[in-house]
Amino acid sequence: MARIEIDEVLGGWEGYEAVAVRRNRGMLEIELDPLAGRPGICTGCGQEVTAVHGYERRRVRDLPVLDAPTSLLLRRRRLACPRCGPKLERLSWLARYARVTQRLADNVAQLCTAMTIKQVAQHYRLGWDAVRDLDRGYLQRAVGPVDLHGVTRLVMDEFALHNVQKLATVITDAVTRRVLWVGKGRSREDVRPFFELLGADGCKAIEAVAMDMNSAYEPEVRRHCPQARIVYDLFHLVAKYGVRGNRARIRA
Fold first, then answer.
1. Of 9, 93, 124, 217, which one is least surrounded by beta carbons within 10 A?
2. Which phi and psi (to 5°) does residue 240 adopt?
3. What pLDDT shows up at residue 2?
């Protein structure tokens, strides 16, 4: 297939053109070079730059072509920006440090809504970790940062990840029952990022925190929210001390 036909049929590589196509062990490889004379966009200041500082080779995955896994061998420019110094050029179809094109990332995320990560990884012949990270990035962009404004009461609890030997922590808003944060582990160090995310003002606004009798939760809450009441859930009180009643024990 002639080079111009490849660009017209496949396209999506703004600022670049295909200069070679070959098959290598069942994978389709397409070499891309920047279009001559076309200015690049500096990743630092966002301005057009024509001077080139150098080039770097990068291999990235793209959507399959005719059911064949497709790899792009990209000769990416490092621009000589007069304002920022040497900077990689900004590409609309490839994130700065990405190893897959944006359209492949979007397709992976969409497929993850109907299939498991393992199934999507097998479909696109990608690693499980790569698919998980793509799906997580898509969800973070779609949902956006969590709004912690107005939160005054928290519930902290642990749950098992895959098996009882791997635990995680979930923190929810006790009033709205909205999940605010989920993190691996249940140690003080594991839950500390939530309070750092909450910030000093947010921590001061916390009135009460309900939790199980995990020895790590209480001291970390005391450290960041010393004014908050600690509320132990009734189930753990009965299980550990045989305390019965209609209300959980409150420690001021």
1. 9
2. -90, -40
3. 46
